[in-house]
Amino acid sequence: MGDKRPRRGPIDRLTNLVPVDAVVRNIDIDAVLDRIDMDALLERIDVNAVVARIDLDEVVERMDLGAIVQRSVRGATTGTLHEVRSSGVRLDRRITGLVDRLLRRPEAWRPMQPAASTPGSTS
Asked: How far apart are CA 26 and CA 29, in angstroms?
């Protein structure tokens, strides 16, 4: 019913005569890949079958979710703190200007104010 022995056809005889490993080592893989129509190749791939083979539990286990969350929160916190500080500086300048006008202080009397901070500055 089922002969499990490999067939001994012309290709098998040829591979016994030619040092296949030596031939393969000398193939320019980039040149071969340049001749392949990748779009046509990708159309033949069943993406759902590939995704079904992924062990999501293992992927999640390998990821350092704590570090990812920490980086995300740190970035959001840094941006928020910068905005809060900038808003505080702007509010302080407006209050100072209002008080100066109420007290009728001349503009020349006002102390020199630093330039508004920009993202990434250390002020």
From this structure: 9
Q: Phi and psi (nearest 5°) for 14?
A: -65, -40
CA dist., res. 8 & res. 15, Å (int)? 11
CA atoms within 13 A on the CB side of 98: 6
Q: 89 and 117 in contact (C-beta within 8 Å)?
A: yes
List pLDDT tens digits, range 69-122: 778 888 788 888 888 889 888 888 888 888 888 888 777 666 665 555 555 555
Q: For residues 91 and 116, is the Cβ–Cβ distance under 8 A?
A: no
Q: What angle do CA 12, 16, 17 make, to 5 degrees?
A: 120
**Angstrom distance (rounded) from CA 96 to CA 13:** 94
How would residue 23 be classed by pLDDT, with cut points 50, 70 and 90? Answer: confident
Nearest to 88 by CA among 120, 117, 121, 111: 117
pTM above the 0.85 mark?
A: no
